[in-house]
Each structure stands twice: as structure tokens, then as C-alpha cells.
Amino acid sequence: MSDKIKLDIISDVVCPWCIIGYKHLSAAIEELELQQKIEIYWHPFELNPDMPAEGEELTAHVARKYGSSKADSERARLNITEAGARYGFTFNYYDGMRMVNTFDAHVLLDYSEQLGKQTELKMRLFSAFFSEGKDISNRDILLSEANTIGISSKQATIALQNNEIKQRVKKLESQWQQMGINGVPTVIFNNTSMLTGAYPKETFIKVLQEILDSGADN
Q1: Closest alpha carbon to 147 in 90, 108, 101
Q2: What's 184's DSSP letter?
């Protein structure tokens, strides 16, 4: 039996609470000194699967989707920015920022798993979108970001054109929806327990410690 703790994380790279939740989880893993005992697998979830290629201005998008006023959006962005800063992540919201389609990003993330670079690419895409204001629906940008972590443009291009990977991403997205997962981030621990939301570090510590204690009892 493996002594590893498997974490399946369902998320989207344009979800601010997904990177905040991951930062909380990472802090919990570090505090418990579990870095060598954790296996993380990232899974696709599109917050806006019907988002057109040109994207949508973020304030207008939030107002349309959630009914939020401009003031609501500004407060939310401030809270998100402060939450990210506490764990070393920079959110740079700006006027005219756009929500974009993320399907190609998920295709590339699926491919990167077999190279052992999935978490590295996920972090790079979070930073590209939220910190650097890049359009991660743009294939040239995706190729560039992949290249910065050692995935060649040729490899990334082939992956983005691979229908088998595309179908797998769609199948996984459908699988999570059928399981009733309609919010992200969602973390599944060893296929036995699940948390949905950007829970604080202390909550992740509690769940991980329970898993450790359970293993010790066996």
C-alpha cells in the first residue's frame, strides 16, 4: 500500500479562490512537513465553458453572471488581493481586465501531467493571468508560458492539436459535474473525503492530520 497521500484538485486557472485555496493547502502541507508524501493531480473545470474567443470584460462578466454591482466587484477584488498577499501571491486587477476561455489551458495542463510539470504549469498560468495580465486563451501566450517551464513550443503545439487529449479533458469535466461538483476549488483526499472552497490552512491541516492518524492506526 502506498504511503503517499493523493490529492485530486479540481479547479480553473481564472478562479482567484483556486490559487488562494492552493496556497492555504500548500502552507498546511509545509507545516506538517508532508512535501515528500503528497501526490497532486490537477483536474479541469471550466467556470465559463461557453466563453467566446474574445472573452468578456471582467466587471461586466461578474455583473451578468452573479448580479454583482461595480462596488461589490471592487470589494471582492480587494478581499481577494489581500488574501493572496498573505500567502505571497500577487493579484493585479486592472481596468479592462477580461475573463477568458480556458479550454486550451486545460488541454495543456492535461498533457503536462505526463511530463511531471503539471503543478509548475498551473502556477505559471495563475501568475500569467492574475499577476501579469496575460490572455491565457491566446495560444501564442500558452506556448510561451509552457516554454518557460521547459515544455517546448513543438510539444505544446502538438498537445493543443491532440483530439485524444481534448476528449479526455471534456470527459473529465463531465465526470466531475456528474459527481455533483459544481464549485471550485474542490480537493479530494485519497478518494475518500472532499472539500469544496478556499478553506483556511487550519482546515487542511486538520484533514491531512486525520489521514495521517488513520494510516498510523492501520
Answers
A1: 108
A2: S
pTM of the model: 0.95
Extract the C-alpha cell encoding 64: 451578468
Q: What CATH architecture applies to the domain 5-217? A: 3-Layer(aba) Sandwich (3.40)
In this structure, the strands spanning 5-11 and 186-189 are antiparallel
Long-range pairs of 136-141 with CB within 8 A, sequence gap ≥ 24: 136/13, 136/14, 136/100, 136/102, 136/105, 137/51, 137/53, 137/55, 137/100, 137/101, 137/102, 137/104, 137/105, 139/104
C-alpha cell, 20:
488562494
- 172: its cell numbers: 473529465
Tens of pLDDT along 38-68? 999 999 999 999 999 999 999 999 999 999 9
Residues whose CB is less than 8 angstroms from the CB of residue 114 and which lie 6 or more positions away in sequence, other chains included: none
